[in-house]
Design brief:
Elements: E1 7-10, H1 20-25, E2 33-38, H2 50-53, E3 62-67, H3 75-79, E4 85-89, H4 96-108, E5 112-117, E6 135-139, H5 155-164, E7 169-173, H6 178-187, E8 191-194, H7 196-199, H8 204-212
Parallel strand pairs: 1-8, 2-3, 3-4, 4-5, 5-6, 6-7, 7-8
Helix pairs in contact: 6-8
C-alpha cells in the first residue's frame, strides 16, 4: 500500500465543542473528519449525535464511528447530515444477517460501510462480512475515551488483514501520534484517526502532516 494513499482523519472527540466550527476550520488539510458516537451502553461514555454536526460547514467527508449497541437505529440521523462513511462495531452486532442488513442500509443511504473491531476481537470475527465492507477499523485502544495509550499488539491484526486484503481500507484509531503512526503504516494501515494528538497541537496543520509523513 503506497504511502501516498494514507488518509488522516481527525476525530472531534478532543476538540472544543463550544467552538466546533472554529476548531474544524483549523484541520482543513486533513482527509476525513470523524464523529465518535457513544450511547452509554456499548461504551460507558455518552457523546454527541447528529445534531452537533448538523450545521457544521466542512469540505471534509464525515466519517461516523458508531460505538453504540443498536447502530441500525442511528443511521437515519447521520444520513440527514450527509455522512460519507459509517462504521459500526462487530461486537455490537454479531449475527451475520443483522450485519448484512446494516451494511445494506448504509449503502442505500449513500455512504460507505465499515466494521470496527476492538483490541481483543480477532479478525476472524468479521470473516462473514469482510468482503461486503469498504473499511475495517482496527481499534488500537479500548473504545470510549480519548487520550489512551496505543496497544501495539493490534498491529499483528493489521498485518494479517493487509496480507489477505491488499486493496482494503484499514483504519486505525486510538493512541495515534507521529511515532505510532509509523508502526501503523508499516503494518498496512492506510487511514489514521487521531483526536488528542491533533486537537492538542498548537499547529494542527503540522500535526496532520507529521502523521501523513511518519
Amino acid at each position: 500500500m503506497s504511502s501516498s494513499k494514507i488518509l488522516i482523519t481527525p476525530s472531534i472527540l478532543s476538540c472544543n465543542l463550544t467552538r466546533l466550527q472554529e476548531e474544524v476550520d483549523t484541520i482543513s488539510s486533513a482527509d476525513w473528519l470523524q464523529v465518535d458516537v457513544m450511547d452509554g451502553h456499548f461504551v460507558p461514555n455518552l457523546s454527541f449525535g447528529a445534531a452537533v454536526v448538523k450545521n457544521l460547514k466542512t469540505k471534509l467527508p464525515l466519517d461516523i464511528h458508531l460505538m453504540v449497541s443498536n447502530p441500525l437505529e442511528r443511521l437515519k440521523e447521520f444520513f440527514a447530515v450527509g455522512a460519507k462513511h459509517i462504521t459500526f462495531h462487530a461486537e455490537a452486532v454479531t449475527d451475520t444477517a443483522d450485519r448484512e442488513e446494516i451494511i445494506a442500509h448504509i449503502r442505500k443511504g449513500g455512504a460507505g460501510a465499515g466494521i470496527a473491531i476492538n483490541p481483543g476481537t480477532p479478525i476472524s470475527a468479521i470473516d462473514d462480512v469482510i468482503g461486503d465492507v469498504d473499511l475495517v477499523l482496527v481499534m488500537s485502544v479500548h473504545p470510549g475515551f480519548s487520550g489512551q495509550s496505543f496497544i501495539p499488539e493490534v498491529l499483528e491484526k493489521v498485518k494479517a488483514l493487509r496480507k489477505v486484503h491488499p486493496e482494503l481500507m484499514i483504519q486505525m484509531d486510538g493512541g495515534i501520534d507521529a511515532l505510532t503512526a509509523k508502526d501503523c503504516k508499516r503494518a498496512g494501515a492506510n487511514n489514521l484517526v487521531a483526536a488528542s494528538y491533533i486537537f492538542n497541537a498548537q499547529d494542527r496543520k503540522a500535526a496532520i502532516e507529521a502523521l501523513r509523513s511518519a
